Amino acid sequence: MGKPIFSARAHVFQIDPTTKRNWIPASKHAVTVSFFYDGNRNVYRIISVGGTKAIINCTITPSMTFTRTSQKFGQWADSRANTVYGLGFATEQQLHQFCERFKEVKEAARLAREKSQDKMELASTALSIAAPQDLGDELQSPPVACVNGPEDKMFRSQSADITLSSEKERIKKMLSEGSVCEINLEAELFTLQDSNSKLVAALHEANNNVEQWKKQLAAYQEETERLRDQVADLEAHGGHGPSDMLKDELTQSLEELEALLKAKDEEIHILQSKKAEYHEMEQEREEAIHRLQEMEMRNVELERRVQNAEQNLAASLEERDRLEGEVQRAIEILDVKIFDLNDLRQSLVKLIDK
């Protein structure tokens, strides 16, 4: 397959195939995710290998879209594998680079498909030119001789098909909206939980450091008070105590201790501000959980509406089949009546001729 077009390291996730809600880690640690060009099939692929196992083997199509659901997380759906892949990057810049390269490769895949279609169209055109022209008369449809019954049946069937197709599209749209919103909230919750665990670890470490610094601060304060008492005693005794050089040394030590105390106070203020940020993140996590619960309730409501729509759809199909049966019976009766009228007309013509 050749060298990769682009590679990046990321944590790989797959959507739970049973619930279609939760993310399942596909790798225990960050792995290499690469874009390749398959020259034999003229397609582009995303491939990631963990050990001896292929975690991702996805063929890129023009209809695929890579969606950024958070600062470091993105996802795309693979309809052929019937799954959704999620990638968690270490930095926002790596996610941006992968997203831009995904767009470029998707555009290249679109151009490659168009070239392949153009070649197929040229080949089919050449075959149609070389084919015999005598088949044109055979391919013409024979004249239709029927009464209004079949036309009415066809009209009814087409209108019912249009109604059913629109109902199916509406159901698919409802399900896709619910699934996309829920997947985005799951990814956001995963990011918040990751940040929360990091903040909890930093907070524990900061609390331990605060305790140590408090003890050091108390010791420094005692040392400062002792030095201040010594300076006061020296000043009270005047020339009977140590020399002026000792006073200067004590004063310098006192100033250094006061500067150290200020630095420790600033560090304590910084840790307190980090603690406030942790509480904000905790509130955001609770809000995300609340929104996820609301989305689950909405999803339950959507599933109930989908079940009702499916029941209505089944009832509509049964009603359509029943109407088609009645129309078919009416057509058969009309055919018999027309045949009888035709015999009667021929009999009248013979009587008139006599």
TrEMBL record:
Residues of the WH1 domain: 1-109
Localization (cell): Cytoplasm; Postsynaptic density
Any one GO biological process: G protein-coupled glutamate receptor signaling pathway
Domain of life, source organism: Eukaryota
CDD domains referenced in this protein's UniProt entry, alphabetically: EVH1_Homer_Vesl
SUPFAM superfamilies xref list: PH domain-like
Coiled coil: 196-333
Record key words, sorted: Coiled coil, Cytoplasm, Synapse
Family of the protein in this entry: Belongs to the Homer family.
Protein name per UniProt: WH1 domain-containing protein
Organism, scientific name: Esox lucius (Northern pike)
